[in-house]
Design a protein that fits this description.
This protein is mostly helical. It contains six helices and two strands, in the order H-H-E-E-H-H-H-H.
């Protein structure tokens, strides 16, 4: 089986769905191993590098932090890993997402109530501003 030839950063970016700027950023963070360079100094990305970039992109799409992604990439490349380690990271992230969603839903309910209570007419009284001011009308 022939191994595909390494490609330039633009091609790697296009194939992975990650911008060239982010490819360099991920490389700088150590999420990608140091890539080979041509004699002229241009980066050359392998199929494995592109696969790793896709992995990183998917993890970012799911909202994992860069630290979590670094840990997940390391576990992904470690064939002796325990899936419990991966699940621990994903479960913590899921718990954080659920907490943030609950907070956003509470904000939505409060704001919806305030918008409903505001007459939105020519009167100066406004329950939205009163709430933002801590429940007291403006002086």
């Amino acid at each position: 089986m022939n191994t595909p030839a390494p490609v330039a950063i633009g091609t790697a970016a296009e194939r992975s769905g990650v911008s060239a700027r982010m490819v360099r950023h991920y490389e700088g963070l150590g999420l990608l191993p140091a890539v080979a360079r041509t004699e002229a100094g241009y980066r050359q990305y392998t199929a494995a590098d592109i696969h790793t970039l896709r992995f990183i992109k998917r993890a970012r799409d799911l909202g994992f932090s860069m630290d979590e992604i670094a840990e997940l990439v390391g576990l992904w490349h470690n064939r002796r890993r325990a899936s419990a380690s991966v699940k621990r990271i994903a479960k913590k992230h899921l718990d954080d997402l659920e907490s943030r969603i609950a907070g956003l839903q509470a904000m939505q309910r409060t704001l919806s109530h305030l918008v409903h209570c505001c007459h939105g007419d020519g009167r100066p009284d406004c329950p939205i501003l009163d709430d933002l001011a801590g429940g007291t009308p403006a002086p």
